[in-house]
Amino acid sequence: MDRTCATRLLTTLLLVISGWWGVTAQEFALPSAPNSVKFAAIGDNGTGDPPQYDIANQMTRFHAKFPFDRVIMLGDNIYGGQGPQDLVKKFSQPYKALLDMGVKFYASLGNHDDPVNSRYPLWNMEGQQYYSYSTKNVRFFALDSNKVDQKELAWLENALKSSQDEWKICYFHHPLYSDGGTHGPSVDVRVVFEPLFVTYGVNVVFSGHDHIYERLTPQKGIYYFIEGAAGQLRKGDTNRSATTAMAFDQDQSFMLVEIDRNQLSFQTISRTGTTVDSGTIQRQIRPAAPVARLLPTTR
Fold first, then answer.
1. For the chain, how big is the Rg over CA atoms in Å?
2. pTM of the model
3. In the chain, what is the straight-line distance between the N-terminal and C-terminal CA atoms, in Å?
């Protein structure tokens, strides 16, 4: 290869690399601070079909720029068969690259999930259908919205009351508020969960069930997100209303979330890598909750 050809080849490569960096920089919307809490959120994902794998590939791609260490799962983690081979096809295989990098998945159960899979090691539920864990200044509460009983409510009240963490994040399958046309809000769950969320200073709630992405206007001071389109999708299923801050129902999607001190930043990304929503939330200042029995610090 002569010097002229070599120069042209090098120039072409530099232009390609420069263009790649320009695109990735433009589509990446999070601060990615060095000591922040970084996680992803997916719901209604476990189909085993190509769109689920496409979302998993986008999650892996964005992990290179935003090294989240955990994924919260919003239920309906597995559709159809629930046996060992289904868990491979519909979970461990699509997310293999992330699992191999040490990313941990923390599941909540949806109406399509077999409760026996709460023992599945890669979901980190440890056989519990509701549980809590924390990292840095954030405590997560994974709840079971399929059949809420007094035992769960008593546990939740004590868990929220005892938490002295700056951020309290709850996640579960059935949304308290939703503009999804197929399901909409689960009012029966709202009437039992919401009073506790308000009393004990929950900041943000994530749910699935409706196969769309939606960010709702704050309700009683709490921010609500629906991410039920990480595998399933119902195109055009949003009935927009005064509570719709943003919705996307044209393709599968997932969320990236970052918490750095008093600020939460979020970015919602489609199956093709397009950013469909992003923004920041400032932590709501709430009165300190009464002290109860202390919870484990980390998980």
1. 20
2. 0.88
3. 57
